[in-house]
Specification:
Distance between the termini: 46 Å
Strand content: 25-35%
Largest sheet: 7 strands, mixed
CATH class: Alpha Beta
CATH superfamily: Vaccinia Virus protein VP39
CATH topology: Rossmann fold
Shape: globular
Number of strands: 10
CATH architecture: 3-Layer(aba) Sandwich
Radius of gyration: 18 Å
Number of helices: 7
Length: 243
């Protein structure tokens, strides 16, 4: 049954992740949802067409969550999820006792995460604002709500270093300038691992080169999963980097 929130509809589902108990996830009802009255998302470069994407569950996110369900929990290891969206992988790791921090640039990602933490009866999970690449200038928005109102929608930025950085379906642009790789390197510990699940979007080559230039060595695994009850077939790559 859809739930009505201010300006958009959501739904609540039990999501199966191999290796852990089902997660209860509230997500946007569909790709047609949109609500940005202060243009807070637009200020981050998020158009009306891409606004709902953070609030949907994606196949690559499910693959990453399954991998997090299998990873041993290591004392002292800090893990950052970038471009987390609904942060299924962070929720799985958090439930298992890992030191997780979820991050995204969408103004509502933190609120959705807090609600899904509550629905699963978990302790609070760290969330930080994480943005890479160019975004519009504040001077482009003189006609809308003041910057102070926008600032209220933006959480504290990612800081510190992490031993593992993870992300799913984050290579959605060619990113020749290397903004994503630079962001990852900025927050990676001197000895770190990076996981990226990519649904063969075709933008890996630039990312590989940018990561290599920053000292990260790549190992690549093909993901080819047949359909099973409750889950569609999936083809993609698991990209693992180390330095």
């Amino acid at each position: 049954m859809p739930y009505s929130s201010v300006g958009y509809f959501t739904k609540q589902e039990n999501i199966a992740v191999a290796g852990v108990a089902d997660m209860v996830i509230r997500s946007l009802l569909d790709k047609q949802q949109f609500h940005d009255p202060l243009e807070a998302a637009l200020r981050m470069g998020i158009s009306s067409a891409t606004w709902p994407l953070f609030g949907l569950l994606w196949p690559s996110g499910a693959r990453l969550a399954e991998r997090m369900a299998r990873r041993p929990v290591r004392a002292g290891e800090r893990i950052l999820e970038v471009g987390c969206g609904l942060a299924l992988s962070s929720l799985v790791g958090h439930r298992r006792g890992a030191d997780m921090t979820a991050s995204d640039c969408h103004p509502l990602a933190g609120a959705f995460l807090a609600e899904n933490v509550r629905l699963n009866g978990l302790l609070p999970l760290k969330y930080r604002h994480g943005h890479w690449g160019r975004r519009p200038l504040d001077s482009d928005f003189d006609h809308v709500a003041p910057v102070a109102a926008f600032a209220q929608a933006v959480d504290v930025a990612v800081s510190g270093r992490f031993e593992l950085i993870i992300g799913s379906d984050i290579l959605y642009e060619r990113d020749e300038a290397g903004a994503l790789a630079d962001f990852i390197a900025q927050h990676a510990a001197p000895s770190a691992e990076v996981w990226v699940v990519d649904p063969n979007r075709g933008n890996r080559a630039h990312f590989h080169r940018n990561m290599a230039a920053l000292g990260f060595a790549l190992s690549e695994q093909t993901l080819d999963h047949a359909a099973r009850p409750g889950m569609a077939a999936y083809k993609g790559r698991m990209l693992s980097y180390r330095r």
